[in-house]
Amino acid sequence: MTTPALLPLSGRRIPPLNLGPPSFPHHRATLRLSEKFILLLILSAFITLCFGAFFFLPDSSKHKRFDLGLEDVLIPHVDAGKGAKNPGVFLIHGPDEHRHREEEERLRNKIRADHEKALEEAKEKLRKSREEIRAEIQTEKNKVVQEMKIKENKPLPPVPIPNLVGISGGDPEDSDIREKREKIKEMMKHAWDNYRTYGWGHNELRPIARKGHSPNIFVFLWNYNLKKQNSEVSVFEVNIRFIGGLLAAYYLSGEEIFKIKAVQLAEKLLPAFNTPTGIPWAMVNLKSGVGRNWGWASAGSSILAEFGTLHMEFMHLSYLTGDLIYYKKVMHIRKLLQKMDRPNGLYPNYLNPRTGRWGQYHTSVGGLGDSFYEYLLKAWLMSDKTDHEARKMYDDAIEAIEKHLIKKSRGGLVFIGEWKNGHLEKKMGHLACFAGGMFALGADGSRTDKAGHYLELGAEIARTCHESYDRTALKLGPESFKFDGAVEAVAVRQAEKYYILRPEVIETYWYLWRFTHDPRYRQWGWEAALAIEKYCRVSGGFSGVKDVYSSTPTHDDVQQSFFLAETLKYLYLLFSGDDLLPLDHWVFNTEAHPLPVLHLANTTLSGNPAVR
Questions:
Q1: Smaller CB count within 10 Å for the chain: N or C?
Q2: What keywords were assigned to this record (predicted)?
Q3: Active-site residue list
């Protein structure tokens, strides 16, 4: 039997059913061919839609709910270890299966109740006239506008500034050291004056072209115009540079405007945390609140060094405002990380904010990971050493780093490699050189009386980073350097030979000077300062160089903002007395903005819930 054709054939006819006159009104026995074709298209589209949707249905078996004590989060299951009763299933709540089932049932009941409530509200709305509905919408709009006005005009609570120690002074007794400090001060003035003249309102300055580079939100802050700006910004950079800088300016000056601006800006970052896991997006639009991640970051993951470098600033925001929302945001991140499995005890650099899964297994103490570890330690220090949870996380992480990432080269140089897909890459970045200072800063309070060990480890890292400077033509360090066979502490690829006025090596020199007073650190710092003055100074400021191994370097024509905030600041402190910003009273954020240790005994904030 042949299949009837779907399209008309030439000469095809349908014979009449009855030649006599009909006894009833005529109805077509079949559809027209064009109607058949349209019906077929609709049917095909429907089948395709249903079939395609099948592949987009979520696999609920791969998601388990868990409670952080702050808010509910969905994360994927974690496979049980070998020997588990139910391989492939891991209850985040722990072994209490009964509690897990009760939690799921409670959640289902809540969803049903919310659904029924929404249906009732919808029915109620449908009973109303169009004019009544419009009036209700307008009333709600007016209410929201009024609440926003009240919130914007509401003054912050009067919070006393903690007793601040060492915000001035630091004059060295030695005349030679005083002279060097004055030179650093002159370099700062040269950099700042040119930025103010040619780059005001921009992130950086082009000192050769004498114009601004990379516009930022600084002018928006000053003009009280944040809510009108449709600007997408980095949550991480805005936090460490702007919020950190404004908080430091407030503490050092006592001027309320800096605190107010810090809080207004922080409120604009909060929508970035609206993700299924509470891990913030990397970018957020200041006007719409829409967030996103960098496309290159392991399939749109959030970056460890970005979402892990918010704690200091957000804790101070809650401290100054009494609003616990900032505290809850960063503590939620910490609780989530504590519950996650870590390969070899190491934190991968990427975490997907939608699923809660780690991205690519890449661990680094340099770029993408660095300041996460720094902020674990500094959370403990900033809390007057009472945040033992942060200290434990730091100690655990450092032990894993020392076991898997820290090695000694054939030439005796200690370096920190990068763990990529199960093997160690013997390369160290300039950014990782900050770790020498971190190890020294965290030596006191380390486990099993290993203070001397970590102080020595910090000194070894400082020596390695100094060698990376000393083995170049300009006596300035490359962006990264390798330890491969006969090559040690030297950049191999052309793309790694540049120096962009980075501060990490100077930062480590300063910390080690503070803890040891070994004169070599001041000597090494001065060598770096002279090299910067000789090869990076131009008429319009200071510029990075493209090749530190060339005796005739080419400038990149960018004066980075961290050159003023960090590099020159650490050099100034290196040649100052220890009574200037003493480390038992101040903690520096990752952009070198000093924030006071929260000595609760030295405040009158007993009524502030954030302090409690």
A1: N
A2: Calcium, Coiled coil, Disulfide bond, Glycosidase, Hydrolase, Membrane, Metal-binding, Signal-anchor, Transmembrane, Transmembrane helix
A3: 237, 370, 479, 504
